[in-house]
Design brief:
about 1400 residues, disordered C terminus, mainly alpha
Length: about 1400
């Protein structure tokens, strides 16, 4: 580089460049290349290229290189734009200008610059577009896309590159960015815009975005007025939507109009569908419905499933041709079906009024069928069956009567099956019983044979045969359901008059045999025998003919109902004989012989001989002819004899009524046979007790009473046996009337037979209980036997109370009113009634209290507690404990309500008294407030204390509370802990618990801190600090704290003297004792310190002289090592703690000398800066100054001590050693690195003298300007040296800067100011040194004029203005006589060219960002 180029390189303004160009001839390329980048570009461009000047290629390339250099070296794109905008137009410059604008756009958008200007200039236009768009998508910045569209030239190639990128990257994220930038519509082609709407899903659930994109398409094609009529789009656009291929050619105006209109229709359809709460349906889904019947039906299904589906919405969608391929009538039917299945019958009625009757009836029947098939219960009064009936009621029965009748019949059958199951299982079905239920859909599809279905029902409900009337009615309805044939059933007298009835009775006989129930099977056999001549015998001809047909081998014939019924009956009779011997009152063998095939007769005869009930039918006949006639009668079923006719006339089933005429006729027929009469009366008794019916008139009532009286008088034993064996198992325990009747009759019969008087009384008591229950409707659903068993069975009262409470539910008051009757009915003593009543009331109160805990409202509990009758002692104690100690209650119910509840309980009980004391204590704790910090006790600790109530009455409450107080002391203030302790003490006094002292709390906390390595200062300090205040002579708090101080002080001394505790922990406790107790324990502290830091055992040291001697010994054995700093700190601390005596002064002198010798003065400096240390200077410094003459290595440490010593007498002599003494590199290194020395030099005013030491000024500057003072110098030293200042480090820097300005080193001073204030690089040449010094004074809080008035008048700076976009402050035009780097400094540029050290010039303009021309040029 020649001299001219160097002179250009040091030019700092356009003015200096212009002066140089006036005297020298230099090419523009050279000027552009050499002038520094921070020179204002616009002024330089106007200087080099006036408006009439043109570019050549070399100059254009140089301008581009300069722009790239500005970006590299300054990072200021705004400077690049200023430079390029002032240049003449050319291709290279224009392209660079565009790229710089792109970088500026990216920088303003994402506050980052991903490329340099060099990198983006080397990219092709395609790469630039791709990279910028990729960055915009990655950062989700639509403003970059819009800005790029404004910067690119509107050429066909750029448009092609733009849309090719979007077509390749049409993903969700890029689509969202493009959607935000779609206002630049002229850049997006039709295929990309349509891809945004239909392809990428960017407008998926936002119809407004899709509408905005379509408006851009319309604007590009100059389409103004368009409306959305249908969703039909042009065919090629529809194919693109379907295939996801967006490589479309440009749309014609007609196609664009159709696309916009179809898009509006699709958007409108989406909005309608969104109102119906249908999700996952976007514009694309609606567009795919065009010419796609499957898609339309799928969308229609989603719409119909909406709970808000309506005919108006469907009509609007149909008008848009969303469902154009689906017939309107079919849509109506589907909507009606959906509304009916959703049980929206009001809306369905509106749709039904608009439909054709035939279609409407079909749809209603289909919907009802679906509801029935989905039902999980056969109860037609609730659930889906009820909805199905409402659905069928929408149409008249005349329309499609067969279908409607079938559905109604199925519903009735399902309800009857449900009733049958509920009545025979004696319980309500739960959700887990679905597997055992006979569901409506199963009844529909199980079989077309009604008898197969009935058999399945009897198998599913094994005890259904015990209700024969319901089963027979069910069988008739099943026949009607499956065959549409009506069957008239004889429900009243249970006579069998048809083959269907015989089949049904045979099925019940089969079910009874499966259960080995011979007693129930007997009536079925008698009914079948009675119908032998009228029903079964006529069927036998066809049955025998088919049997003969099969025996002759003419092939199998289909089994008809008569054959199946006959086979069912005789096989059931055979099974009855085999399995239920002597348990039935009938002749099944004779019936079986009458109906079985001929080949089975011998087997049945052999079976009859083994039967206990079998009587030889021909034994009484005299001739073989009579014998043969008897067999024939059995087989064929001839007319029955007199005995058979009598039994038919006196059928026990006829006694199951209250009809007086029927009963009289039955009893009259058996008036001569007591056994038969007894059987009839017992049968009637079984009916009278188990039926839900009542006599219809007074005459029937009188006859009922007469029959009961006859039973009690003539047949009491048989009646009791029947009541126990037959009536009691079938007695409905929820029917109180039946129960009362049962026990009344039982009591009379027991009294008639002369039974145990206790049984009679118990039966009468139960009858009385049943009579009382009849007047309490709320308990009618409770089983009577469970109520009595709840009192009679449990051994403890609490178990009885729990069972009664579970049965009563919310009707506890009614059960309490029945307590006496219940106890008598259970055979217990009268005192048990009071105990049960009290227990039930207590249980109710506890439930109300638990409910109050759940809701937070105890109003109902308090009202019920105030209205409660007398409770027993145990129950009162339980309630009091529940209120006071239950943690859920404590957390949810306010403390005032708990206290009010306890006030309503009797106070004489010890448990109540304790509970009151506990709640009162908890109430006091919650209201505690610290008057020193104005804070309340934490809710967590209040709840923790309240949770202490989870203890048992016999456990140690003192220990529980102690642990809570110890944990509380870790976070709460000492005042709160003390007040809590006082409240607890009052409670413990009521509880007769051991006394809890406050010292015990903190002693345990101290023990935990010692064991866990915690902070003993945080444990002990707050309570001891609290003891300093005066609370009065009669204050309870003062007494507690006075007692605490004496006891806790002894505890602290015990810990200090405890050898088992670590020395470090004992030392920390000792420091607490010294701080608050002001006890002199210097000897113990010395022992502990010696043990900790020197592992040295010190003997007995009671006097000050002995302590000083041991201290001097410890100093002598202190060496450089791992614990050197801790040892020195301990020695200094001991000297600070000891009182000022001559012995201690000698130790201080020895300590100061020792620190100077070991170059560790910083350890004692915070301690020596006191007035009492002044007198020691004459004993320390003279000898050390003499030694420093021959020992240069102590000069630095001695100067540190002297400069920061309170007596300034020794500062100048020691500073002279630093300035004038000869020392080596080691000593110089110590001087340059000592922050304490640098601070002392500034404090004592020796900055100018430090210039004599090479590098010392720079070292002081590094210490002060880098804010290293805070880290390297103890804060106490700074505050002592520079008192009454907020920022002592800035005050020191100001002092040093002013001294440097006074001695003519403004450049060095300003460089310090620049670095301290963080002045930006581009502003370090815009002002004068005086301004920056004044700025530093203002920051430090000083008001000192640091320059002469003459300098103020000669220098000035024009105010700058702030750029609106970048915030850069541009300085105004400077005066010609004022240079940027300082005042009154004459610089010859020729001298710079001859500097031998070229490296300094390179450093000045190279990589160092903190350039200071003043300092560098002055040094040169």
């Amino acid at each position: 580089m020649d001299g001219l180029e160097l002179r250009l390189a040091v030019c700092t303004s356009t003015h200096s460049v212009a002066e140089l160009l006036e005297t020298h001839s230099v090419s523009k390329t050279t000027v552009i290349k050499c002038v520094p980048e921070f020179v204002k570009g616009r002024e330089l461009a106007l200087l080099l290229f006036p408006s009439s000047t043109a570019f050549n290629k070399g100059e254009a390339e140089a301008c581009v290189r300069r722009a790239e250099g500005i970006d590299v070296w300054t990072g200021r794109i705004d400077w690049v734009l200023d430079w390029l905008s002032a240049l003449p137009k050319s291709t290279h410059v224009q392209r660079c200008m565009r790229n710089a604008q792109i970088l500026d756009l990216v920088l303003r958008s994402i506050h980052e610059q991903p490329w340099t200007l060099v990198e983006i200039n080397n990219m092709s236009d395609q790469t630039v577009i791709d990279s910028v768009l990729e960055l915009a998508v990655m950062r989700d910045s639509a403003c970059i896309v819009r800005g790029l569209a404004e910067l690119l030239e509107h050429t066909q190639s750029n448009h092609t590159r733009w849309n090719e990128w979007w077509a390749r990257n049409m993903a969700m994220s890029s689509a969202r960015v493009a959607l935000d930038a779609v206002t630049e519509g002229e850049w997006f082609s039709d295929d990309v815009l349509l891809g945004l709407v239909y392809g990428a899903g960017a407008c998926g659930d936002n119809a407004n975005d899709a509408e905005r994109v379509l408006s851009v398409v319309a604007r590009n094609h100059r389409i103004k007025d368009y409306t959305g009529s249908t969703i039909d789009m042009p065919e090629r656009v529809q194919m693109a939507v379907r295939n996801g291929d967006w490589t479309l050619d440009a749309l014609s105006e007609t196609e664009a109009r159709r696309v916009c209109e179809a898009g509006l229709a699709q958007i409108h359809a989406c909005r309608i569908i969104a109102q119906l709460d249908v999700s996952l349906v976007d514009v694309t889904a609606v567009a795919l419905c065009q010419d796609n019947e499957r898609a339309q039906r799928r969308l229609l299904t989603l719409v119909l499933r909406s709970p808000h589906a309506s005919m108006s919405g469907l009509q609007e969608l149909c008008s848009l041709r969303v469902f154009g391929l689906v017939e309107y009538e079919e849509i109506q039917q589907l909507l009606l079906h959906a509304l009916l299945c959703a049980e929206r019958f009001t809306d369905a009625r509106q749709v039904l009024d608009t439909m054709d009757n035939v279609n409407a009836c079909d749809t209603v029947c289909a919907a009802a069928r679906e509801l029935v098939d989905n039902a999980v219960s056969g109860n037609k009064e609730h659930g889906l069956l009820k909805s199905a009936l409402e659905c069928l009621d929408l149409v008249s029965d005349t329309e499609h009567s067969d279908q409607i009748e079938d559905e109604r019949c199925l519903i009735n059958v399902s309800h009857m099956v449900w009733q049958l199951g509920a009545s025979t299982t004696k319980r309500v079905f739960q959700s887990s019983d679905i597997a055992t239920r006979m569901l409506p859909i199963e009844i529909r599809h199980f079989s077309d044979d009604p008898f197969v279905v009935l058999r399945a029902v009897l198998e599913r409900y094994p005890r259904a045969y015990t209700n024969p009337r319901v089963v027979r009615e069910l069988g008739a309805m099943l026949v009607q359901l499956k065959t549409r044939e009506r069957v008239e059933m004889s429900i009243r007298d249970l006579a069998v008059r048809s083959l269907t009835e015989a089949y049904i009775v045979g099925l019940m006989l089969e079910a009874a045999v499966r259960q080995n129930d011979g007693k129930a099977a007997g009536p079925f056999v008698r009914q079948l025998q009675a119908c032998m001549q009228s029903v079964l015998a006529p069927c036998m001809r066809s049955v025998e003919a088919k049997r003969a047909h099969r025996m002759l081998g003419h092939g199998d014939l289909d089994r008809t109902d008569d054959e199946r019924a006959v086979d069912l009956v005789w096989t059931a009779c055979v099974d009855l004989v085999k399995s239920c011997k002597a348990e039935y009152d009938a002749d099944p063998v004779s019936l079986a012989l009458s109906l079985c095939p001929a080949e089975q007769v011998p087997e049945l005869l052999r079976l009859s001989t083994n039967s206990n009930e079998w009587q030889d039918p021909w034994a009484h006949m005299a001739s073989p002819t009579d014998v043969l006639q008897g067999v024939r009668d059995m087989l064929v079923g001839s007319s029955p004899g007199p005995a058979a006719r009598a039994s038919e006339q006196v059928d026990p089933d006829t006694m199951r009524t209250f009809d007086v005429a029927i009963l009289r006729r039955g009893l009259r027929s058996a008036q001569n046979d007591p056994k038969v009469r007894c059987a009839l009366l017992v049968e009637w008794l079984h009916f009278a007790v188990t039926t839900v019916k009542e006599p219809s008139d007074a005459r029937a009532h009188e006859f009922r009473t007469a029959m009961e009286t006859e039973l009690v008088k003539r047949f009491p034993k048989e009646a009791m046996r029947a009541l126990n064996d037959r009536v009691l198992p079938e007695l409905d325990q929820t029917n109180i009337t039946q129960v009362r009747t049962y026990y009344l009759v039982y009591a009379k019969c027991a009294q008639a037979v002369g039974g145990d008087s206790r049984d009679v009384q118990m039966a009468q008591a139960r009858a009385q209980l049943a009579e009382e229950l009849m007047h309490i409707p709320a308990l009618r659903s409770v089983r009577f036997d469970e109520l009595v068993r709840a009192v009679a069975e449990p051994e403890s009262r609490n178990a009885s109370v729990d069972r009664l409470g579970a049965l009563a539910g919310t009707h506890v008051d009614e059960v309490i009113a029945l307590a006496s009757a219940l106890v008598r009915a259970a055979g217990k003593q009268e005192p048990d009634a009071a105990a049960i009543a009290s227990g039930l009331r207590a249980r109710q109160l506890q439930q109300l209290l638990d409910r109050a805990a759940a809701t937070g409202d105890p109003t109902q509990f308090l009202a019920s507690l105030s209205d409660s009758p007398q409770l027993q002692t145990d129950d009162i104690a339980s309630i009091a404990s529940h209120i006071a100690y239950n943690p859920r209650i404590a957390l949810s119910v306010d403390i005032d309500s708990r206290s009010l509840a306890l006030q309503q309980l009797p106070a004489e009980l010890n448990t109540v008294m304790r509970a009151r004391a506990f709640v009162q204590c908890a109430q006091e704790v919650r209201e505690l407030r610290d008057p020193f910090t104005f804070t309340r006790i934490s809710d967590n600790w209040a709840r923790a204390f309240d949770s202490c109530g989870r203890i048992d009455p016999g456990s140690n409450l003192t220990r529980q509370v102690l642990h809570v107080l110890v944990e509380m002391s870790q976070t709460e203030s000492a005042y709160i802990v003390c007040q809590t302790h006082m409240a607890v003490s009052r409670m413990l006094h009521v509880w007769n618990e051991p006394v809890l002292r406050l010292s015990s709390v903190y002693a345990l906390a101290l023990e935990q801190a010692i064991l866990g390595g915690g902070s003993v200062e945080r444990v002990c300090g707050p309570p001891l600090e609290l003891c300093k205040f005066d609370y009065g002579d009669n204050s309870e708090l003062g007494d507690v704290l006075q007692e605490f101080r004496s006891e806790f002080g002894r505890e602290l001394e015990r810990v200090v003297n405890n050898a088992s505790v670590s020395s470090a922990m004992r030392l920390r406790v000792l420091r607490v004792v010294q701080q608050y107790e002001h006890a002199s324990m210097g000897g113990m502290e010395l022992k502990l310190l010696a043990d900790i830091h020197w592992s040295y055992s010190v003997g007995s040291i009671d006097t000050v002289e002995a302590q000083c001697a041991e201290w001097q010994h410890l100093l002598s054995i202190t060496k450089q090592g791992d614990q050197f700093e801790e040892q020195v700190s301990a020695l200094v601390h001991m000297l600070n703690e000891w009182s000022l005596t001559s012995n201690v002064d000698a130790c201080w002198i020895q300590m100061l000398v020792w620190t100077v010798e070991h170059n560790y003065v910083s350890a004692v400096l915070p301690s020596v800066q006191t007035d009492r240390m002044r007198v020691l200077g004459s004993h320390v410094f003279p000898a050390l100054i003499d030694r420093a003459q021959g020992e240069p290595h102590i000069v630095c440490a001695l100067a540190e001590l002297a400069l920061l010593f309170p007596d300034t007498t020794w500062a100048e002599p020691c500073m002279s050693l630093v300035v004038h003494a000869g020392y080596g590199e080691s000593a110089l290194h110590d001087i340059l690195q000592s922050s304490y020395l640098h601070v002392g030099i500034v404090v004592r005013g020796f900055v100018s003298a430090s210039c004599a030491v090479p590098g010392l000024v720079d070292a002081i500057g590094r210490t002060l300007r880098a804010r290293a003072v805070d880290r390297a110098v103890d804060r106490r030293v700074l505050e002592y040296c520079v008192p009454n200042t907020v920022h002592p480090e800035l005050e020191l820097l100001c002092r040093a800067v002013h001294v440097l300005c006074e001695i003519g080193m403004q450049g060095v001073a300003v460089s310090w100011v620049y670095e301290c204030l963080g002045v930006p690089k581009h502003m370090r040449f815009g002002g004068r040194s005086q301004m920056w010094v004044r700025q530093l004074d203002a920051v430090a809080g000083r008001n000192v004029v640091c320059v002469d008035e003459k300098d103020e008048e000669t220098g000035h700076m024009e105010s700058g203005h702030e750029d609106e976009e970048t915030g850069h402050v541009e300085s105004g035009h400077e005066d010609e006589d004022v240079h940027a780097w300082g005042d009154d400094v004459d610089i010859d540029v020729d001298d710079i060219a001859h500097v031998s050290d070229a490296e300094q010039v390179h450093d000045a303009w190279g990589d160092d960002d903190s350039i200071d021309l003043d300092a560098d040029l002055i040094n040169l």
